[in-house]
């Protein structure tokens, strides 16, 4: 008998209407633009780090401590953003954070000391962490509504925005001051928010939580035939909705979700934490290359500021290409092989990028690292969601973004203690660790899947062979 309790987020419309409506297409496009804006602004900041380091007269250790402000602000916000999204909606929080993040990007070039820079980056980090959580929460809803595994495309937009931001930053690095450059980014961010924000908010109102439609269920003893059973949380008087019949047998969604949360086996929570660690290991590398890659190329290999900025641009380009091809890769290799091979590729690439004696070899290493890391983070987040629903996505995302934000200050302290090239090899070490954790996660996921409650997600080998493309964002 089909599972009647599987919850999705679908588009409001007529019964039997295809989810791939123009409304959902517009919603997906608008949300994609915000992912791209996030990457664009972040890349614009990182390519100016060498200039701002010189402007504030900060040592490597002092700069690493200032960058810790980004991490601290993001962690604080990530613990609060979930509540804000629950109260105001993830789409509204996304738009608000985009506007504020655009304003905050112009603050770092106004500082003249490491302490002032750290305080400013605390604000920047808070807004960066907020928009990251809000966008991914909104993306989960869009993926479920589309009933297609399009999550990698959102992350590809982030990478594409980062590539464009780094490329433009490299072009203007020699001609514009950091203040002029980042002020232009503020203007661009506000213009995009004004242009895409209304569409995102308007089209998101068409999404409603609903119990998955069941075409027809044969009658069983004590059960009457049910069609198109839909439950809208928050409707106390259970007003009729078009296409909904016999609502008396529809379980309360909030009660059901609470029951599932309590029934979730400890093993599933541990596997979610494991996938969160995989995300952390790979996001550490992305954050480290973003903040310290250009500085390594400029100071250790004598690259021109424009060529140094091209290092992160190549990394972002490779990651974008890898994520756009992510669905095909998952279908052919499966999730475990994608995780293992991706981690191994990134480890080799980063060893080359950090230890190469010439600029061109280092650039090649950055590109290989981007290809290796491209799909590990989206796969880890998706698998966490398959095992534990939205709670799993939130937990793994927080760990992952924590790695992205904690990596740069760790690199700074290691650079003072050892050297910047040696510090960057930790990216290769953690990428190799993610590869090993990918193998471990497969076995652990199968164990959690066997102990999961009826109707829960599983970590079966069948899912692994299919690449997990069964709508990873479904609730």
Automatic annotation (TrEMBL):
Transferase among keywords: no
Main location as per UniProt: membrane
Keywords: Membrane, Transmembrane, Transmembrane helix
Bilayer disposition of the protein: Multi-pass membrane protein
Region of interest called Disordered, as start-end residue ranges on this chain: 1-22, 446-475
Ranges of residues in domain Major facilitator superfamily (MFS) profile: 24-450
CDD domains, per the entry: MFS_MosC_like
Top-level taxonomic group: Bacteria
Name recorded for this polypeptide: MFS transporter
